[in-house]
Design brief:
Elements: H1 8-18, H2 25-37, H3 39-56, E1 58-59, E2 66-67, H4 73-76, E3 81-88, H5 91-100, E4 105-109, H6 127-135, E5 141-144, H7 150-163, E6 169-172, H8 188-196, E7 199-200
Helix pairs in contact: 1-2, 5-8
Length: 201
């Protein structure tokens, strides 16, 4: 029987943080201790920022991005090329591409990738929303900027097939993206090379 070393509030903090990607129980305990030691400069502002995020941040009804306005800031930006939609798996991929500063187009977040073993089929992804946007007629190219994993490429092939009757050009990121690579972990130069060398599917 393990000894109880902290109150329920601290234990709950540890348990919640341990659910975050890349954080196990040990890392979560370290993070909680750091937050508690620096309560006024870290914990209180973080709690306030998280409450504001809960209250104000929502999913863009058009592209699936996260923002405090709807449609999101990217969808509202009239300077962007509305003839291209860049399809990504997750919102973090938008952030990666925007950091690279190589694309000035619209985005579309699928919300993941096809994974039959996990019960994720086309209906669980925002593919219907993409087809609907393309059907409006303004889009000339759809760039599939999906992760270079088996699941990502399977998803790219499926989406490409679904778009085949639309008449739009369908391309994907080319050289620079390693097999198994995820966009959010790639540097800006690699993403720029992949974008410039995109090819039609």
């Amino acid at each position: 029987m393990s000894k109880k070393i902290a109150g329920p509030e601290i234990e709950r903090l540890v348990q919640l943080l341990a659910r975050m990607p890349g954080l196990g129980p040990r890392s979560a305990r370290k993070a909680v201790l750091a937050l508690l030691k620096r309560r006024n400069e870290l914990l209180v502002p973080l709690a306030d920022a998280m409450q504001q995020a809960v209250d104000k941040i929502a999913e863009c009804p058009q592209c699936g991005n996260l923002d405090t306005v709807a449609p999101c800031s990217i969808c509202q930006d009239t300077r962007r090329d509305s003839s291209m939609i860049v399809v990504v798996e997750e919102v973090g991929d938008i952030w990666a591409l925007e950091r690279a500063n190589i694309i000035s187009a619209r985005y579309h977040v699928l919300g993941g990738h096809l994974s039959p073993l996990d019960g994720i089929g086309p209906d669980q992804l925002n593919i219907a929303g993409l087809l609907s946007r393309v059907a409006e007629g303004d889009v000339k190219e759809v760039l599939l900027a999906l992760n270079a994993t088996v699941e990502g490429q399977s998803t790219a092939h499926y989406v490409s097939d679904q778009l085949s009757a639309s008449g739009v050009a369908v391309s994907k990121l080319a050289q620079g993206v390693p097999i198994g690579g995820e966009l959010d972990y790639l540097d800006e130069g690699t993403l720029a090379a992949a974008f410039k060398a995109r090819r039609k599917l």
